[in-house]
Amino acid sequence: MNPTIPKPAFDFLLKLKENNNREWMQEHKKEYLANEKVLKEFYAAVEKGLNVTDEIATTKVFRINRDIRFSNDKTPYNFHRSVSFSRAGAQRRGGYYLRLEPGNSYMAGGFFDPNPADLLRIRKEFEMDSSEIREILAQKDFKKAFGNFNQEYAVKTAPKGFSKEDENIDLIRLKSFFVNHRFTDKEIFAADFIDNLIHHYQLLRPFFNYMSDVLTTDLNGESVLVS
């Protein structure tokens, strides 16, 4: 029997959204902990499912507490639950993400805010030859599930050292390279949700394989990994 997301977990998040304060959370801590236990069992099952065709190093469950130190919004809690799955080994790049929120649940995957060296390497690859990544993005199942890269994180014109007239500037100007797919609450509560989720994660693999090749080689195609 597949593990599922319990509806009470979403009911709790909806109530938290309306009562986002420490006093209410303390009064409902037992309910919160019960939901967390079930959600962590679901995350563990997702990790197991991913490990069938991939290798996961770590599963990170994001805290429900918000970091309010530099925010004008001082409400103490997130009213969503999030988890990420990091791939194992220097040769495996890319990460899987899941956000659970009433009316706003989605999975995502890719390369969010890569370090400067990786970002430059990716941009140089796109500048040199974008045919392979465009072929992946245009693949029927991938495009149906994800569309294109998220365009929210990009420079306005061209990064330093690149021409705004470059034919691949639409890719080069990006600062992150990830896609997402949204799920309805009905899909979240369905008995086959974990299969649906892992299916969408597996659709990312050609993208991950390509980017892993890029990030573990130089522009001449020579490995940069230390043997």
Would you give an account of this structure?
InterPro entries: CHP02453, UCP028451. The protein is α+β, with helices and mostly antiparallel strands. Strands 1-2-3-4-5 form a 5-stranded antiparallel sheet. It has one domain (7-216): BirA Bifunctional Protein, domain 2 (2-Layer Sandwich). 43% of the residues lie in helices and 15% in strands. Strand 2 (81-87) and strand 3 form a beta hairpin. The protein has helices spanning 7-18, 22-27, 29-50, 116-128, 131-138, 140-146, 169-172, 185-189, 193-202, 205-215, and strands at 56-61, 81-87, 95-100, 105-111, 177-183. Helix 3 packs across helix 9 (193-202).
Quick one: biggest sheet? 5 strands, antiparallel
What strand line-up does the widest sheet have? 1-2-3-4-5
Class per helix and strand makeup: alpha+beta
Shape: globular
Give the N-terminus to C-terminus distance in angstroms: 43 Å
Provide a compact summary of the structure.
Helices cover 43% and strands 15% of the residues. With 227 residues, the protein is of the alpha+beta class.
